[in-house]
Amino acid sequence: MEFTELADHPLPRGVVTEWIPTVTATDRWYRDDRPLAYTHEEHCRHSLAKSATGSSDEIGAAWIGAVFEIHDRYDPEALRRALRAWTSRHETFRSTVTTDGVDADGGARLTRSTIPEDAVDVVPRSLGRRRSGSDVHKDVSDFFARTLSPFRWPHCVVATVEDIAPSSSTSDDDGTDRFLLVFGADHSVMDAYSMLLAVSELRRLYEFEIHARDPRLAAIGSHLDFSVVDRETGDCLTPD
């Protein structure tokens, strides 16, 4: 594993497809009264401050992501189901924040909305022909830059690169079924630790769709529920 900026990570030639979560019906959004965790609120307010001072063209440019290979055949429909299951599984991916008036401290009031897990789907958009590595890099970087924001849903998106050119260590036709998966998420819904867990989780979900192999994924809690505990704990703190 290598930790580096996407700008410094080479990507192979191939066909790029963008995978974008969507809702099956806009009326499925509901007002969610669970508060934001302290770090989530700070991220949102920092993004608003950057926008207000003109130091960022988009509200919120802080995102995190990973690039990894899936060593299996590329099946778009199986991948769509795997990504839909991944998005549905994590409630934080199905929630968003908007500004709504002014709060008691004179700052922007932050309001949460959430959608049920059965109201999520994922829509692919293929960019068509095989592209060079530099073009693939630009396509993926531009996709994340124009999509990811703490105030614009979805907050986590995926790009795949298939029909990958062989690496220098392989023959021109090594017979290997593989494709590249790149995901990006706004920092409001993912940190470095959850990013590392996501790589294994996505692989397992895809293997389930391709081979009906039990992904053996443990039940998970919701970061939105943690946010409630986070605020309640903070409210109990005294100066002493």
Between the first and last Cα atoms, what is the distance in angstroms? 43 Å
Which bin fits the share of residues in helices? 25-40%
Supply the helix-strand structural class. Answer: alpha+beta
Helix and strand sequence: EEHEHEEEHEEHH
Number of strands: 8
Rg calc: 19 Å
Chain-averaged pLDDT: 89
Query: Tell me about the biggest sheet?
Result: 5 strands, antiparallel
The coarse silhouette is globular
Flag low-confidence runs. 168-173
Adjacency order of strands in the biggest sheet: 3-8-7-1-6
Strand portion = 15-25%
Supply the number of helical segments. Answer: 5
Could you walk me through the main structural features you see in this protein, from its secondary elements to its overall organization?
This protein is an alpha+beta fold. The strands form two sheets. The chain has a five-stranded antiparallel beta sheet with strand order 3-8-7-1-6, with helices on both faces. Strands 2-5-4 form a three-stranded antiparallel beta sheet, with helices on one face. It has helices spanning 38-52, 76-89, 133-147, 192-211, 223-236, and strands at 15-23, 30-32, 63-70, 95-102, 108-114, 120-126, 156-162, 179-186.
Give the structure's gist in a few sentences.
The protein is of the alpha+beta class.
Key phrases:
single chain; 240 residues; alpha+beta; five-stranded antiparallel sheet; three-stranded antiparallel sheet; 5 helices; 32% helix
Topology record:
Layout: E1 15-23, E2 30-32, H1 38-52, E3 63-70, H2 76-89, E4 95-102, E5 108-114, E6 120-126, H3 133-147, E7 156-162, E8 179-186, H4 192-211, H5 223-236
Antiparallel strand pairs: 1-6, 1-7, 2-5, 3-8, 4-5, 7-8
Helix pairs in contact: 2-4
